[in-house]
Specification:
The structure holds two protein chains of two kinds. By secondary structure, chain A is of the alpha+beta class. In chain A, 55% of the residues lie in helices and 17% in strands. Chain B has a single domain, classed as P-loop containing nucleotide triphosphate hydrolases (Rossmann fold), CATH 3.40.50.300. In chain B, strand 7, helix 8 and strand 8 form a beta-alpha-beta unit. Classes of the chains: A alpha+beta, B alpha/beta.
Chain lengths: 365, 251
């Protein structure tokens, strides 16, 4: 009977219910998509950095492991100093440029040194860069953006000549000569990071120790198991961002359910009086109101999950290179967050309903 | 009258009919020097000023009086919806004036049924849901036999799946009566039950109440300002300015 009453009440005011469901759905999809986007970007970037094949990555002081967020260029001449360290076979400077319009990172590289560090690209078509305006893209980018070898491709307000299409997984999806990117971004003789290859993988620890002695404040990270380092916990800024988004989502759910249930309680004052006249205890009334809130939250969550998949599909249609990871764990967490926010929002209206004087409630117009 | 109604009448013996002449029957409802004072700011407004009266089991008492004389307040206090300022209310031996809010709620659940002037049905539920809700709140679960008896008695069988907005005023009030008596309360309190009905429906509802009283032995206290409605009761109590002016038992 309680379930029937809750369900009938939910269906009795379709517009109110629709607004609630939409708000909870937005709340759930904000959590799912924000977390999915950040972890997706993180994982994707990490996989590709791991895929470069270097042993160590050296970045300027306080640089983020999430390299898309840190340009912080260093002088190119550091390369000579790094190269003097024992057991280092190759050093490749890389300048990063984040292209906001395509939500992608471009690597400015020296073809020779990058080849030495990474073991070289696997070319599907074309060849390596030889001239200042040459560009190579990976097969995913080429397919999604319909780029072909020999094509003039305008990128970063510059006309590049696409000379090669390579297997994906080596750092970025787009590569241009480092000098050209330095010129385009006004960072002459600067690099964002150095990829380092040791003479043997087992020398990595020793080389890192020595580098830390020479560059004490610099970020020196091993690239083996780099993926495991790239979690939100290791990126305090990102963690705060995710927390803020979740807090925002909880606020949306809380306020909408609060407003909805508050107006519902006001509207149903007389009905609460009737329930009290029938001998309904405060517990019974609370169960009815909280049950209705929980039902709205759960229905909204289902809509939210659907909305998340829809928005992801739309986002991927617009930005095919994007990775949005929607894991069952985070979907479940988003539902729980919505439920908690909704129930918190319903607490005050519930308390209000329970303490209503039955005589006054029955006289309510 | 339906066969089921006739059957119900045949199987239930009116408590009043069962009383032996001259024998003492414990009152089902008793008030002693009942006062209810409302405070609006510093002003005190006495709604009840020492009401003392009794209702015996199986009685149908009509409480009459002009607007503002305290009829509804009396009904709310004896039904446990409001707390008396002074005096005692005993319902089936339970002293409401000594009870907490939760205890009065429990007493309402098990011993009191209310019928209101404006029906007060839950608009989201159909007639069946409104009646079943009272059973659910009562805590004994859905009793299909009792449900069947009550809805047939009140002629609601064909209207059970209609929402209040799809029912006439008379039908809504009959649903409200069914909801009030579904748990077999000791006392049925009706606050101007015909106040929102036309003459034909008023007659129908009053006949129903009389039938419940006569056939099921249901004790009824009905508030009304209509002498024709009051005439359905087997005792009429008149109130004025918060006191009973006649109709209270002597002594």
């Amino acid at each position: 009977m309680m379930r029937e009453m809750v369900l009938r009440n939910v269906l009795h005011r379709p517009v109110r219910t629709a607004v609630c469901l939409l708000a909870v759905a937005v709340e759930v999809s904000v959590v799912v998509l924000v977390v999915g986007l950040t972890t997706g970007l993180l994982t994707d970037t990490a996989r590709r950095i791991e895929g470069v094949g270097a042993d160590i990555m050296l970045q300027p002081p306080a640089a983020s492991a999430f390299i898309a967020f840190s340009s912080a260029p260093m002088p190119m001449k550091l390369r000579e100093k790094i190269a003097q360290v024992r057991h280092i076979a190759a050093v490749a400077p890389v300048l990063l440029q984040f292209n906001a319009s395509g939500l992608e990172i471009v690597y400015g590289i020296e073809p020779g040194s990058f080849r030495e560090v990474s073991g070289g690209f696997v070319f599907h078509k074309g060849h390596d860069m030889e001239h200042a305006d040459d560009m190579i893209v990976d097969d995913v980018y080429a397919a999604t953006h319909r780029v072909r070898v020999g094509q003039t491709y305008r990128y970063l307000e510059h006309d590049f000549q696409v000379v090669g299409i390579v297997e994906h997984g080596k750092g970025a999806r787009i590569f241009v000569p480092i000098e050209t990117l330095q010129e385009l971004s006004a960072t002459h003789d600067k690099a964002s990071l150095f990829f380092i290859r040791c003479t043997r993988p087992e020398h990595t620890e020793a080389v890192m120790e020595e580098l830390r002695g020479i560059f004490p404040r610099y970020e020196i990270r091993p690239l083996k198991e780099y993926l495991s380092l790239m979690t939100a916990t290791d990126l305090p800024g990102l963690n705060s961002f995710i927390d803020s988004m979740i807090a925002l989502a909880v606020c949306i759910g809380f306020l909408v359910i609060f407003l909805s249930m508050y107006t519902t309680i006001m509207e149903r004052t007389r009905q609460i009086g009737v329930l009290k006249s029938l001998g309904a205890s405060n517990g019974y009334i609370a169960e009815a109101i909280l049950g209705e809130s929980a039902t709205l939250c759960l229905m909204g969550s289902v809509c939210g999950i659907g909305l998340s998949f829809l928005l992801r599909a739309l986002a991927l249609a617009k930005w095919p290179n994007l990775t949005i990871l929607m894991t069952p764990g985070w979907i479940l967490r988003a539902v729980v967050i919505a439920l908690v926010g909704g129930l918190l929002g319903a607490l005050y209206p519930t308390w209000l309903a329970c303490r209503k004087d039955p005589v006054e409630a029955l006289a309510f117009e | 009258m339906t066969a089921a109604q006739s059957g119900t009448r045949a199987t239930i013996i009116s408590i009043r009919d069962a009383q032996l002449p001259g024998s003492y029957v414990e009152p089902l409802l008793k008030t002693e020097q009942l006062w209810k004072v409302y405070r609006t700011g510093k002003v005190e407004v006495p709604a009840l000023q020492g009401v003392t009266f009794e209702v015996l089991p199986g009685e149908f008492v009509a409480v009459m009086g002009p607007s503002g004389c305290g009829k509804s307040t009396l009904l709310h206090v004896i039904g446990g919806l409001a707390q008396a300022t002074r005096g005692r209310v005993l319902v089936d031996g339970n002293d409401l004036s000594a009870m907490s809010d939760a205890e009065r709620t429990k007493l309402r659940r098990h011993k009191v049924g209310f019928v209101f002037q404006r029906f007060n049905l839950l608009p989201a539920l159909d007639a069946r849901g409104n009646i079943a809700l009272a059973q659910h709140i009562h805590g004994n679960g859905f009793d299909p036999h009792r449900f069947e008896v009550v809805t047939r008695l009140l002629g609601l069988t064909g209207r059970l799946h209609h929402k209040p907005s799809e029912l006439s005023g008379g039908e809504q009030q009959r649903v409200a009566i069914a909801r009030a008596i579904i748990n077999e309360p000791k006392i049925l309190l009706a606050d101007e039950p015909t106040g929102s009905l036309d003459t034909a429906n008023s007659t129908l509802v009053l006949e129903m109440l009389r039938q419940l009283n006569r056939d099921l032995g249901q004790t009824v206290v009905m508030i009304t300002h209509n002498p024709e409605a009051a005439a359905y009761g087997n005792r009429i109590v008149h109130m004025r300015d918060g006191v009973i002016v006649d109709g209270a038992p002597e002594g």
